[in-house]
User: Which sequence fits this backbone?
């Protein structure tokens, strides 16, 4: 029971983890999947009483769990890749011009079915896992030939302990493995338990031929999937992208995908990075985003000798900062494998990919002035404070607050810590999501920074890949950031154009201008405190309301 409980918990985490990655909505999918599987387990426990022979039912149950657990990821990948590649397939079949879309009701219906597939499989797995405890309880009493007074207590004790061990195995081992390897390993354990059960309780299973055939066939299936499953899943993952997939990498924290688009003869190829199915940058316009992220806070700072970057594991913000000739730049990012990839040190990445990424970020991670800290910024900032560190400029290049865990690094608590790290005449710049699609979340970030003791301002610009995008900037003493920028000069009296290929001072100052009523309801928008999840809720609500409103029928993986 303890072993089965560990397997069940791994399946639960595995389904939630993978479904979130392929659907591109890790934060909501994870909790929905876990909740759904728990409910299904309860229903399974109720349905288990309908089986007349617990021995036969348990043997088939382990076969069913192992079979579905082993094939679940393949089925999900297949359904989603077919649904999202079907429109392009229709265009090719009928020779349609790319401007003629094939995303009508039938195609959209298929996409909805594909998106529901992970939840259907998760519910079926949960239903079967929930049947295990009642069946084992009945089996134990039949084997002992009497009512066992502490039967359920013993089983539940083993179940809880096993689940705890399963959680530890997931964190310590499964997250380090390819997702299919974790699934097949867990399915193999279920299959072996089923086979051991057939051997031990054969006297209770007079008709075992079908069970033995099913279990042996399952072992063959596991061997086939172990040999070719990873390649199949890789091909299906590639089908989710219109552009050519150059390289994919699953780290303990995220799924990285690099794609390439050929625009035309003689034009540079466009390289894009997707994390968990969400676009992070495209090489044709990332300069716009990173210029607005880095140049304003650097201009607003009195000095630029010591810079702190939080996030930015692709090294693109780092590249632009190094143009300002700082003495030292410290970068904190959670994902060491992503940094390794963009440093050109990933042993699995083809040499051509490493060379392309190094060209994109100017080999910024290889600069001697750069100090990289791999870890959770929420924790590492405390370590910097304990060491008495201070910085002239702080640039926060973190993902949108689309997950409760990320929400904490957009809180007053975190900004107060950054305030202690920032020099009195320095400035802080923060990536602040879309002011158009997520207006409340955008304004909340500005108000949260202000509540932490900063003079806070916000600015925005159009980044073609993302649409209208926004940033927040703050200072501690003296004039506001925009006032400092208006009066500033670049280092050594140079023109700002020398240090930025995109921005001029008039452009930056114009970015601080919003429509007359944009902040009219700002007084009703709450700040984000640690544990409140207020910003996360604003962000989730906005994107849910706008889903399809501005880009109807758009493939979220494009």
Assistant:
């Amino acid at each position: 029971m303890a072993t089965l409980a560990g397997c069940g918990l791994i399946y639960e985490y595995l389904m939630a983890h993978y479904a979130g990655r392929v659907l591109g909505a890790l934060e909501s999918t994870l909790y929905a999947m876990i909740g759904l599987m728990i409910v299904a387990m309860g229903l399974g426990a109720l349905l288990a009483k309908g089986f007349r022979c617990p021995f036969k039912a348990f043997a088939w149950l382990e076969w069913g769990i192992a079979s579905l657990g082993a094939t679940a990821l393949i089925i999900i990948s297949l359904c989603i890749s077919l649904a999202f590649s079907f429109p392009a397939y229709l265009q090719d079949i009928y020779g349609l011009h790319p401007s003629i879309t094939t995303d009508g009701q039938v195609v959209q219906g298929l996409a909805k079915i594909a998106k529901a597939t992970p939840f259907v499989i998760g519910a079926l797995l949960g239903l079967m896992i929930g049947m295990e405890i009642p069946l084992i309880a009945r089996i134990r009493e039949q084997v002992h030939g009497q009512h066992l007074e502490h039967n359920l207590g013993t089983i539940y004790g083993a179940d809880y302990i096993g689940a705890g061990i399963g959680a530890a195995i997931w964190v310590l081992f499964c997250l380090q493995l390819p997702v299919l390897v974790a699934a097949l390993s867990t399915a193999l354990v279920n299959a072996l338990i089923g086979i051991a059960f057939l051997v031990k309780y054969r006297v209770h299973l007079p008709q075992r031929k079908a069970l033995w055939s099913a279990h042996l066939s399952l072992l063959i299936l596991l061997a086939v999937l172990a040999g070719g499953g990873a390649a199949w899943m890789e091909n299906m993952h590639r089908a989710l992208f219109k552009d050519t997939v150059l390289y994919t990498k699953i780290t303990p924290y995220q799924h990285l995908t690099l794609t390439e688009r050929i625009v035309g003869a003689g034009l540079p190829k466009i390289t894009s990075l997707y994390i968990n199915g969400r676009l992070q940058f495209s090489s044709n316009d990332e300069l716009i985003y990173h210029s607005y992220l880095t140049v304003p806070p650097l201009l607003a700072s009195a000095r630029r000798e010591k810079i702190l970057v939080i996030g930015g594991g692709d090294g693109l913000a780092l590249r632009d900062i190094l143009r300002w000739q700082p003495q030292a730049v410290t970068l904190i990012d959670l994902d060491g494998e992503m940094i390794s990839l963009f440093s050109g040190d990933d042993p699995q990445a083809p040499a051509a990919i490493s060379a392309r990424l190094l060209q994109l970020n100017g080999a910024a991670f290889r600069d001697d002035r750069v100090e990289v800290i791999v870890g959770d910024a929420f924790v590492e900032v405390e370590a910097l404070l304990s060491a008495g560190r201070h910085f002239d400029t702080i640039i926060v290049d973190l993902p949108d607050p689309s997950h409760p865990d990320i929400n904490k690094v957009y809180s007053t608590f975190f900004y107060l810590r950054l305030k202690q790290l920032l020099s009195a005449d320095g400035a802080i710049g923060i990536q602040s999501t879309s002011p158009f699609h997520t207006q409340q979340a955008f304004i909340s970030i500005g108000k949260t920074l202000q509540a932490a003791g900063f003079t806070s301002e916000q600015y925005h610009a159009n980044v073609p890949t993302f649409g209208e995008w926004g940033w927040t900037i703050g200072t501690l003493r003296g004039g506001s950031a925009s006032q400092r920028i208006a009066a500033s000069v670049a280092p050594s009296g140079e023109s700002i154009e020398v240090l930025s290929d995109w921005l001029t001072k008039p452009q930056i100052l114009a970015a601080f201008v919003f429509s007359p009523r944009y902040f009219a309801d700002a007084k009703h928008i709450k700040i984000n405190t640690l544990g409140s999840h207020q910003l996360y809720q604003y962000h989730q609500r906005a994107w849910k309301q706008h889903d399809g409103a501005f880009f109807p029928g758009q493939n979220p993986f494009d």
Remarks:
- The longest helix spans residues 54-94.
